[in-house]
Specification:
Elements lengths: L1 H17 L9 H7 L6 E11 L7 H20 L3 E6 L7 E7 L4 H8 L3 H4 L3 E11 L5 H5 L8
Antiparallel strand pairs: 1-3, 1-4, 2-3
Length: 152
């Protein structure tokens, strides 16, 4: 019986020594609220916006679609579906901008993107990818709303 206790003690001791380190700052309520897995991560959808196939020169229509694009971005942020958005500098790949959407599937992202007038009119064409990143990414939105002086 003493041998069983000794082996059990050794197993527990070795298990303690080699166990994964736990984060002393872990906030279970926040992790749950943000949908984080055990690594503090979750699935998002990364959208790369490219120049679309619409080459229409109607400036009024194009301006209206891009004004609607900006309005839609703000709505998606208010709905807590859009975490990151911004233009991409001039490049040879026709990349125009990117979004990170707080949705778990490509299908849900595609549905959200159809609310964007510039995408619907094919001035922009989205490429969608599943992206695995920090679940805390959405927490930056509160701070981001406090650092801009001029509305773009």
């Amino acid at each position: 019986m003493k041998l069983v206790y000794t082996i059990s003690f050794l197993i527990l001791t070795i298990g303690t020594i080699f166990r994964q380190n736990n984060n002393p700052n872990y906030d279970e309520a926040l992790a749950t609220k943000l949908g984080a897995d055990d690594y503090g991560m979750k699935k998002f959808v990364l959208v790369i916006l490219k120049t679309g196939s619409n080459i229409d020169d109607d400036k009024t229509k194009k301006d209206s679609c891009f004004a609607g694009h900006m309005t839609n971005i703000n709505k998606l942020v208010e709905d807590k579906k859009l975490i990151v958005a911004g233009p991409i500098g001039e490049n040879d790949k026709t990349y125009r901008g990117l979004f990170i959407l707080d949705v778990p599937t490509l299908e849900e992202a595609a549905t959200l993107l159809q609310t964007d007038p510039a995408i619907k009119a094919k001035y922009l064409e989205p490429e969608l990818y599943i992206w695995y990143g920090s679940a805390a990414l959405s927490e930056y939105l509160e701070a981001s709303d406090k650092v801009w002086k001029i509305n773009p």
